[in-house]
């Protein structure tokens, strides 16, 4: 008896575990079978329940759940208009238990583009209806003369609204809610959902271009975007031609070669991963980057970015009304070409890769920034630099030789601590904002070459190697950021100054409370490395990033933070500008016309 009970419990555990795993894995996106082949733009959230679970596992979510972070966000959130209403709508939407959501722009040939959008949910239809009431009210307010009607399509009831320049049709069917601006498109989608045979055309999921693009993206992603760029390009060219314009021949050919672009975002454990694939069957496969510049890094390197140098074949032709600066650059380029300082001379001396890196050892008050360029031929590189600095461009630079290395130091810097300097070694051309730092880097490079310096470089660290393994081997460019160390150095250094500065910025305190800025340790323990890779194969180019946040998300976050910080100043400036304008409050006449 006991053995039977034990066997039953084990079976129950296995079944429950299998169900849980299959639920997390999700199923194939149903929307791919509903969107028609030839869809111009497709956006899909294939498994919202799975994404919600995954989000809670990410380091970014865990950081947001920290009490210190929530306390700091209280004041900024209180200043956001309509935040409570948005949260209430979000709560009501998730109470529907949404499963999948998609949007498909199916045609842009007509004056009014055609689209179909859908939401799959397992909640009550009445609850979604109540959410849609506000949208219906806004439509009637925007088009008072519009007419609403109900039509039958088999067992499905279709709700339509027709205004002066808008037509919308919507329907509930098999846990799906669809809305479209084309009644026939909606009916075809309902037929696809029912699995009716002999429907015109195929589905997006079976299209060759979609398969070729999506095959390079992370599997079981949480968000997917696909664009038929060839269709968009044709439409763009027709509009440009209708306006009497034309694109440069080189750009035109480049656009025509790209057939599609696909992107995906995946919540992958503690990390977030995003990828973009550009389908270009004519692309030439590139070899993996050598990244010789990694020898310049150290275990204190917080930022590293390297890429393959691609120089334009020539400057674009300038019109007669071109700015004086561009005209001056063109004239300088021609003068340098007369000295042999042209593209061919440059590529013979330098390349193929460039790099930038930021070192910041713990305890140092400031970081050291360095740029590097590979050297192909040291002799040609030296002649190229000597010729360049003998020209008028080199009037502010002084050349000196130290220990067999040629240095070029700018002498006209207005900031004493900033002395932009170049150093030419056998393998690299180095550029830094400070002469002493560049000189120290040259000495460190000599020590590494002579095996006198046993200090490990960045690529020898386990953190870098683990991060690098999350993305493909780069052929075009790559990047690495040590998120935890950046937070400790940058945020840890600036936090005390921000708290102090807030005492002299009362407007800033209206938006946020710097005194509640989270401790450095609170943020740093949730942050890890961020890595980026760009690679080109015979099918196209793949750009992928992974980490606590991705490169794109980091840039967006920096821009948003800068916007929030600058908002009080911008608001004051606009208010002052309005008061000084001819029709502004300050100049408007009083009741008596004065």
What brief labels describe this structure?
globular, 594 residues, 20-stranded antiparallel sheet, disordered N terminus, 20 helices, 20 strands, alpha+beta
Q: What features would you describe in this structure?
A:
The chain has helices at 2-25, 31-34, 48-57, 59-64, 67-79, 83-94, 125-142, 183-193, 208-214, 229-242, 249-257, 324-338, 343-349, 378-390, 435-449, 462-468, 483-501, 506-511, 520-524, 551-580; strands at 41-45, 98-107, 114-121, 147-153, 156-162, 167-173, 176-180, 223-227, 260-268, 271-279, 301-308, 350-359, 368-375, 397-402, 405-410, 421-424, 428-432, 477-482, 529-536, 540-547. The protein has 594 residues and is α+β, with helices and mostly antiparallel strands. The chain has a 20-stranded antiparallel sheet, with helices on both faces. Strand 4 (147-153) and strand 5 (156-162) form a beta hairpin. Helix 13 crosses helix 14 (378-390). Residues 1-26, 318-329 and 583-594 have low confidence and may be disordered.
